[in-house]
Amino acid sequence: MIAFVSILLASFLAPEVFAVIGGDLNCTSYNGTAFVYTPAAVACSNAISDASCAVLYAAPNTLYPAAGNDAQRAHACYTTATATPAAIVLDMKQAALANCAKTCGFCCQTDAYSCSNAVYPRLNCATVTLSQCNSVAWRTIIAQDCPASCGFCLSGGCVDAVTNCGNDLSICTTVGMQDFVNTYCQRTCGRCPSSTTSASAGTATTTVTSTCSSYIADSSTNCANWSRNGFCTNTFYTLAQRRARCATTCRIC
Ligand SMILES: *[C@@H]1O[C@H](CO)[C@@H](O)[C@H](O)[C@H]1NC(C)=O
Ligand SMILES: *[C@@H]1O[C@H](CO)[C@@H](O)[C@H](O)[C@H]1NC(C)=O
Ligand SMILES: *[C@@H]1O[C@H](CO)[C@@H](O)[C@H](O)[C@H]1NC(C)=O
């Protein structure tokens, strides 16, 4: 009887013991006792269906990567080996990144997250949370200053403030909706500022779509630095204020 109980206990306890990420520690941080996934590890969507990813990259211990947990990744996410420790095989990892980045807990290494944040961000990029990435109040500022923290690297510094503008594209041309779309659907409706600063290289790369060919002179000598810092698209300042200081650098007509 005692033997039977101990077998029961052993089989009950055994699966819990060795859940460590191991192998590839990208997109994780150390919480004091274990390596756990960062929020950015699972902040993207899989490129193919979640169900297909669960077949291709089945969790070794039933638990899948989630922010703060230490679920072991499927070996196929990063290696051709079938047991840890295993060397990273880049082909395997590229395939996982392209198809099932979320299931593999690799979102932080996808193109959308692979850029630098601004040199002088207005907020601490390291502490940006997932709810800030989705917040109307924060998104446009984060897109300019901390694009890598929210996966905004491919959006050139300009995102919609709300996430569902694309549900009804007719709002972009509806007369009574112009104030709304200018504020909340800038990207979807093509209302990004004429020069949108891309923070990725730490230099001001400008995409000019303005309609004039000359600008009034900058009145400040700091415009180059301010531009790098997101000033040209910073809606804390009115367009008139930005034009008054840095019309040429910001290319504001
Ligand atoms: C992160 O991934 C790269 C390849 O994508 C690999 O070379 C590197 O060793 C990994 N780093 C860690 C800490 O696992
Ligand atoms: C670290 O993460 C592990 C695995 O999720 C968890 O069991 C442990 O309690 C965490 N430790 C701290 C200090 O949060
Ligand atoms: C711009 O920033 C650089 C780097 O911080 C600094 O050395 C330089 O003096 C700044 N230029 C102006 C005009 O403030």
From TrEMBL:
Keywords: Signal. The keyword Manganese does not apply. Residues 107-153, 212-253 form the ShKT domain. It comes from the Eukaryota. The keyword Coiled coil does not apply. Residues 1-19 form the signal peptide. PROSITE patterns: SHKT. PANTHER family: SHKT DOMAIN-CONTAINING PROTEIN (PTHR21724:SF110). This is ShKT domain-containing protein.
